[in-house]
Amino acid sequence: MAETTKKNSSNAVKFILCSLLGFFMFFVSIPFNGKTTIPVDHVTTLLRNLLGTTVQGYIVLIVVAIGAILPFVKKTWNKSAKDLVFSIFKVIGLICAVMYVFHVGPEELLANPDLLPYLFVTLCCSLCFLIPIGAVFLSFLTDYGLMEFVAVFLQPVMRKIWKTPGRSAIDAVASFVGSYSLALIITDDMYLKGRYTKKEAYIIATGFSTVSTTFMVVVAKTLDLMDRWNFYFWTTLLITFVVTAIVARIYPTAKVPDEYMEGITPNPEATVTKDHLKVAWHEALEAVDRSGNIGTNVLKNTKDGLRMITNILPTILSIGLLGMLLALYTPIFSIIGYIFYPFTLLVQIPDALLAAQSLATTIAEMFLPAAFVTGASLATRYVVAVCCISELLFFSAVIPCILSTKIPVKIGELIVLWIERVILSILLAGIVALIVF
């Protein structure tokens, strides 16, 4: 009896300390060196500043090279059509990295701030350090009872509205305050551990993996909306998750089987109807009891983070560059924009065609539309600013991140989901703009 009590006390301390550390690192924004963000981001910034621009560039180049070479070393490059295509894009990504680091190749690609400088410095250099550092602390967030504790209280809300477990609320918050890349590491980890079904992981990965609040600030500043920041932030948050609730009930999400990954022991949430605090505490301590060694968990998550960056950095460079070139130098997105034109007209957006055509570019990169509507009306800027975030899926970063996980998502389905999300976002944001502006 005394031994059991001692064990429970030890587990309780472990739950509280590890959960507090995980919560602090991912969810508490603190000011430091003139920047207010989460500690994981501060640690990343400190490391990047310590290394300097040149060293960062070489590290990214090495990571991209490993990512491009691995499929050929493992002989998986032609395992399927998707593997073949992405292996080719990874090689192209390596070529892009070499061009940028050694400044060889077309000057337009190297000098235009919207092309390789943006993809390599803003995206790849950031993700190359943010994902592994985030992965180091991820174990404290997912393995020591916090998700189980939160899940008991949020289970009814998450299940009814989004068809996902209560523990998925952590994923949603991690994206908004941290990064979609960190949230996707959490989602992939939970799926591989049998804590999410295929459908649940699918909904979470394609519906909660938003860009962070930091990116929202950039969009708001670009479109001169900072004087309405709180209105913009909270309506965007609401619209994003309303869209996810709708998309979770229609094709292609509706057809995804609600079953666990093959060969994995299911670990679903238990349905709780009473004594929520007591059950939450018990579930948390049970999770701690089966959590294992902290060092082993941290090492495993770090390896997963390193695996993810070798997968996504080469494709961000190649697919992102292709999308940017198509957006900047061809009429393809202007043509695609006509898909959304009837909907921008329906909600009476003042610059309906401009908004529709600019929003078509979100599939390449979420920030691109902002560049096209800086001089547009307030209502148009607001709708575009919301849709930049709530559409969620784009080829320069999020889509390669999703495809690098084990979650069963296909490229064709992601494009359908993108169209659905843009249309629904236009309608919802347009209604808000009609009422307010």
Helix and strand arrangement:
Blueprint lengths: L1 H26 L2 E3 L2 E3 L1 H35 L7 H22 L4 H5 L4 H27 L3 H17 L6 H9 L2 H13 L5 H10 L5 H10 L6 H19 L28 H14 L4 H36 L2 H5 L4 H6 L5 H8 L8 H5 L5 H13 L7 H6 L7 H26 L1
Antiparallel strand pairs: 1-2
Structural class assignment: mainly alpha
Tell me the fraction of residues in β-strands, as a range: under 5%
Strand order of the largest sheet: 1-2
Number of helices, counting only DSSP H or I runs of 4 residues or more:
20
H and E order: HEEHHHHHHHHHHHHHHHHHHH
The total of beta strands comes to: 2
How many distinct folded domains? Answer: 1
Report the helical percentage. Answer: over 70%
User: Low-confidence parts lasting 5 or more residues at pLDDT below 50?
Assistant: none
Largest sheet: 2 strands, antiparallel
Overall average pLDDT: 88
Amino-to-carboxy terminus distance = 66 Å
Question: Could you say which overall geometry the principal axes of the C-alpha atoms support?
Answer: globular
Task: Please describe what this structure looks like.
The protein is an all-alpha fold and 437 residues long. The chain has one domain (2-436). It has helices at 2-27, 39-73, 81-102, 107-111, 116-142, 146-162, 169-177, 180-192, 198-207, 213-222, 229-247, 276-289, 294-329, 332-336, 341-346, 352-359, 368-372, 378-390, 398-403, 411-436, and strands spanning 30-32, 35-37. The protein has a two-stranded antiparallel sheet. Helix 11 (229-247) packs across helix 20 (411-436) and helix 16 runs parallel beside helix 18 (378-390). It is globular and about 70 Å long. The model has no long low-confidence stretch (mean pLDDT 88).
